[in-house]
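thread: overnight batch results

M.L. [08:02]
morning all. the overnight job finished for the chain we discussed friday. pasting input first so we're all looking at the same thing
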Amino acid sequence: MLSSIGIPGLILILVIALIIFGPSKLPEIGRAFGNTLKEFKKSTNDLIGNEKEEKTNFEEKNNRIALEKSKRLETK
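M.L. [08:03]
and the structure it wrote out:
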């Protein structure tokens, strides 16, 4: 996505941002953007982790049920 912008496009975007927001606001905006990305990444990882945990719990439950069924069949 960003590879298609190129160096001249990136410089133009930075100059426009500098003109609009001024040099004192740019670090604050960058920091806020970084924090937003960090929180998004953390939330995404949490969702993926929860999904994997639920899948593992489901597989363990199925394994337990299959083991109980096989024990019942062996005793008959």
